[in-house]
Write a structure and sequence with these properties.
The chain has twelve helices and 15 strands. The protein is of the alpha/beta class.
């Protein structure tokens, strides 16, 4: 699975248009794709015909309130063959307040995607037009960051702040996504457009896509219809440009380690497992095992689905897995699993067979 965040805090640069139609382009090329709308304005959702007011959205996936939390799989909407959408909602604008002073908050989306049950090949994230909590989450989750830049006098305004945030990710979290600029709303017949394209190349050096997106009325018309360009007018020039962009990205990205020689994700060979522990007195519960090197960390935490019920969802490879729960510091076997085996340290581990 390759994760792409489309980000630029400057409005009117084609950010949402790019996220929507790049995702649709991947799908048109046979790549199973998920578009995540992480903008509280929900423009990407609207552009694909999902109107505001849906009861479940990305807010419910990211929220820290256990009684409202949903798995990402529970909110996904099917848009077309090979293209799904995780819609947004205005409630997303309040979520940063829930994670104030919580360092692990920047990992929320990354953790959600690491446990995603559906085996997508491409994930495209439409970021909020800001450099706050949601955008930082998207950048941390991303393997590649696309910065759409329209060829205007103010095209590079604010880009340095985004690049500084990505550098902060590298320094603080040792995460360095590839960054590429994408020229949008292009009319290369004018000398000014040619000049601005040269300025973009000076800023991003080699990190500029060869593909660029031409201006066209079909973009606005498709948005008004609640359709991607490939549903509305696939023969239009912008649609052709987005296919070229998708093909260029596919040619640039390396085959991820979790894929086999066919290019299809071995996620199809993985299995979803829900771990549930019932305990009324626990304050903190972790799940550790050979699948995470027995490491107790923020990533191993279970969340309290309801009073006394703790839950975590993992994708596990086929085979035999040993594991334990850590309840307020005490390591215990799974009371809901009778299959246990001695370990080399004189204790006992729970054992799970994944077929």
């Amino acid at each position: 699975m390759h994760v792409i965040s489309v980000s630029n805090q400057k409005g009117g640069c084609g950010k949402t248009t790019t996220a929507v139609n790049l995702a649709a382009s991947f799908a048109s090329l046979g790549k199973r794709t998920l578009l995540i709308d992480l903008d509280p304005q929900a423009h990407a959702s609207f552009a694909l015909g999902v109107r505001a007011g849906r009861p479940e959205s990305m807010y419910h996936v990211l929220t820290g309130q256990a009684d409202k939390r949903k798995f990402l799989e529970n909110i996904i909407v099917s848009v077309s063959p090979d293209l799904d959408l995780a819609p947004s909602h205005i409630l997303l604008s309040t979520i940063e307040q829930e994670f104030t002073n919580k360092e692990e908050a920047v990992l929320r989306l990354h953790e959600v995607l690491s446990c995603l049950a559906f085996p997508y090949e491409m994930v495209v994230i439409d970021c909020a037009p800001s450099l706050g909590f949601l955008t930082f989450n998207a950048l941390r989750a991303a393997d590649t960051v696309i910065v759409p830049i329209e060829l205007s006098s103010f095209s590079l305004m604010g880009v340095s702040k985004l690049l500084s945030m990505i550098e902060l990710l590298r320094v603080k979290l040792s995460h360095s996504p590839k960054v590429y600029a994408l020229a949008t709303m292009v009319d290369m017949r004018t000398l000014f457009s040619q000049h601005m394209f040269g300025e973009i190349r000076k800023t991003f050096v080699r990190g500029v896509f060869d593909a660029s997106i031409r201006a066209g009325i079909a973009v606005r018309e498709s948005q008004a219809k609640g359709q991607s360009l490939f549903q509305y007018k696939p023969e239009s020039k912008p649609a052709q440009d987005y296919v070229q962009l998708a093909q260029e990205i596919i040619s640039k990205i390396p085959l991820p380690e979790n894929e086999n020689g066919t290019g299809r994700s071995i996620g199809f060979m993985q299995h979803l497992k829900d771990f549930i522990l019932k305990t009324q007195t626990a304050k903190e519960v972790h799940l550790v095992g050979d699948f995470n090197n027995w490491n107790v960390s923020q990533n191993s935490l279970l969340w309290q689905k309801e009073e006394g019920v703790w839950q975590k969802r993992l994708m596990l490879q086929k085979g035999r897995h040993r594991y334990k729960y850590v309840v307020d510091g005490e390591w215990i076997t799974d009371p809901g699993n009778s299959l246990c085996e001695p370990n080399p340290y004189g204790g006992v581990d729970s054992v799970l067979e994944v077929e």
